[in-house]
Amino acid sequence: MSNVTYSTSIEEIDKRRQHETLPDKNTEKEQSIMIMKHLDRLNTQLLKEYSEGIFFINCEGDIMFSNEAAFKLTGNKHKQKSQQLTALIHKSKQQQAQELFQRALKGEKVHFSTTINHKTKKELHLYITLIPIIVNEQVAGVYAICRDDSKEQERSNHISQLETHLKMEQKLANVGSWYYDVTEDKSYWSPQLYNIYGLNPGQLFTPSFKDVLQFIKECDQKRLKKAVTEALLTGESYKIEYALVRPNGEERTVFEQADAVADEQGNVIQLIGVVHDITESKVITNELKQKEQQFQTIYNNLDAGIWSVDVQRNKMIVCSNGVSSIYGEDAIKFLEDRDLWESFVHPDDKPAVEKAQHQLQKGKTIRQQYRIYTKTGEMKWVKDRCIPTLDENGKLVRIDGIIEDITAEKKYVDQVEYLATHDHVTNLPNRRKFERELKNFIRQMKKEKDSLAVFYLGLNRFKHINNTLGHDVGDRLLQRIANRLKKFVTPDVMLARVGEDELAICFLSLAHINECQKLAAALFQEIEKEITIDDFSLYVTASIGISIYPHDGEDVKTLLTNANLAMRRAKEIGRSDWQLYSPLMDSETYKSYHLEKGLRNALLQDEFFIEYQPKVHTNSREIDSIEALIRWNHPEWGRVSPEDFIPLAEETHLIIELGDWVIENVCKQLQQWGNQGLQTVPVSINVSSKHLLKRGFVEHVQQTLARYNIDPSFIEFEVTESSIIQYEEHVKKVMDELKKIGVTFALDDFGTGFSSLSHLKDFEFNTLKIDKTFIQHATDKGKQQAITKSILYLAHALNMKVIAEGVETKEQLAFLQKHECSFIQGYIVSQPAAPQKIAKYLKKRFL
């Protein structure tokens, strides 16, 4: 045995192991000793020169010896007794190693890969061969020959990863690969190619070219067959798109590309190709083509024009048909001359357009509207949007734009703006427009340190014209007045309708009172001229209030409010009057506001009371009847004039409650006078149209009379002509019902409204009262005296009782006596008095 030599190969060791036998000994102990000696000899001669790690392991699995290479692999000398080889192996692999070791002990040569724990605590991949040691035909131990398999394992893992990545990439890209070996007539398909064809990648065969053709749509089979045949014959590559039909009937579109591989003689020996499923991309491509076609259609048929300019080349590179349509010039002309469009811009708009162009250099998109003159000379409004593109250095390199013809839109907007800012009846600016322009005027006057005046015109009794003659006549009347006043309009004067019967005029550079007076007089002169509409001759008066900037206000709201206050004061004073605003008017407005607020509580707080004024025979001065006059004793303002609170009551509808209260208290007073044994006379009560229209008014009067046991003939209702005009039929019905029970009616303030003989005839008033305005001028020779005489004559002719109101002087009394006015009322006889004083008058009977 000492002359035996060993090679370094595992195979040689294995062969020698099979032929060697050890001396036959009688005991296992002696046998083990001989094995150890044998192993020592092997260790000396073989282990030192062998490059792979070798372990000698006994049947119990203990490592008996290991060479230097084994130490390098494991980092252990393995001199410890009873050290197991399996202890070096990773826990997860120990069970497998133990099972394989048992197979080696049974005489089987075993190969396996495993992982061991290196002394440095790193995992090491080993390839181990277990070779049984046969002694006397029995396994006495095992050689464990180990090789570092880490690099091989890394290469294997790398190849596996590459294969996995390739499969994933093919799957994600929906690309399958194949090759065809011509010499062996064999094909290979990647898994993704199976998927593309709708086949199972796990099937046991690779489809042949003949198999493939059956999946190809019939119309494409010849083309594919021709391409493959030519590639095999000529060695040329090919590219082809075709449709295939999967086994489930689904149709897919693919793109195939293949290259030929030839041998040294130029014979094709292989075809290598890829198949790309382009179904979805084909759909997208088709959609893009359709959209491109749609875009081209829209691009060429848009009303808007699309253009683009290459700034660096100073050339227009895009110009759609829309540009040509807007300008009336061929698109080719714009492509030839980039600046041609500027010649079409309206001269007045050129500065603004050119100024806006500078913003493009800063990269700012500009939007502008301006006018152009087309090639035919037609003026148009256009809306232009310019979008700049800058390079990386911030330099303008391109401008893209869209231009639209907005002429029709502009006209519509202007029309809407006109309708929104002008009165549809007079075509004058409305309040909104007036306030906006007044704001601009104020800004201008402030800058120029100048003044302006606001004239607020209120047309008197315009509502009565609407109510009596109809709104059509009222509208035409307004139009006539507006046309007359337009003669005052200049660039420095603005006229507007700011209310139903209100106009406003703004005069720039006007502040002197004399100028205001002259203008007011001129306005009155125009307004008060006779206006004939249809068969009606109309005379209109106005009241004017004036406020001046900056003295009476420095903003629109204040100036208009103050001018309106002044106009209302002018109305209170009389017709055809004008008033400059005064701060005192604010206090009166404040009072009016609080009166209206307090009016609601006045009835509850017993702040109202009644005074009575006698009406007597003109000659004898015997009391004929008395008039009930409501009074208000305000806790803060004292006695409030009926002229102040009656209009407020009319506006707030409290007039009905006040009327009921007066009727109730008059009946109560008549009862008290009767209970005192006084000879009572009829009492007249002023009643409004709203009260007459109240549902159940007749029943309420009857119930009140009955409650106080008052004869209806002792009640007379005074109504004004203006209160019955709008609801003539209903008012007449109420009057007739009350007349039937004995109540009488008087027509109050005759001659001040729209006096009509038909009203005297149709309503059959018992009494006619001549307004005090006629009585005040009755002694003046002129129209007023003539009218008064005519009214007296008319009343006598109609056999009506006539009463003259407001008689204050002996001259007025003498005039009335001369013209046989039967009854008078006024301060010449008695002022309104309390019930106690009237009781004394009733005892006397004569005043």
From TrEMBL:
Query: What are the EC numbers?
Result: 3.1.4.52
Fetch the SMART domains from UniProt: EAL, GGDEF, PAC, PAS
Task: List keywords of the entry alphabetically.
Answer: Hydrolase
The GGDEF domain covers 450-583
Give start and end of each PAS domain: 45-108, 291-364
Instruction: Extract the Pfam families matched here.
Output: EAL, GGDEF, PAS_3, PAS_4
Name all PAC domain ranges. Answer: 238-290, 366-418
Where are the compositionally biased (Polar residues) regions? 1-10
Basic and acidic residues compositional bias, start-end = 12-28
Positions of region (Disordered): 1-28
Q: Does the keyword Hydrolase apply?
A: yes
Q: Which superkingdom heads the taxonomic lineage of this protein's source?
A: Bacteria
Question: Which residue numbers delimit the EAL domain?
Answer: 592-846
- Keyword Transport in record: no
Give the Gene Ontology MF terms in alphabetical order.
cyclic-guanylate-specific phosphodiesterase activity
CDD domains noted in UniProt: EAL (cd01948), GGDEF (cd01949), PAS (cd00130)
Which PANTHER family does this entry report, sorted A to Z? BIOFILM ARCHITECTURE MAINTENANCE PROTEIN MBAA (PTHR44757:SF2), DIGUANYLATE CYCLASE DGCP (PTHR44757)
Q: What is this protein called?
A: Cyclic di-GMP phosphodiesterase Gmr
Q: What is the lineage of its organism?
A: Bacteria, Bacillati, Bacillota, Bacilli, Bacillales
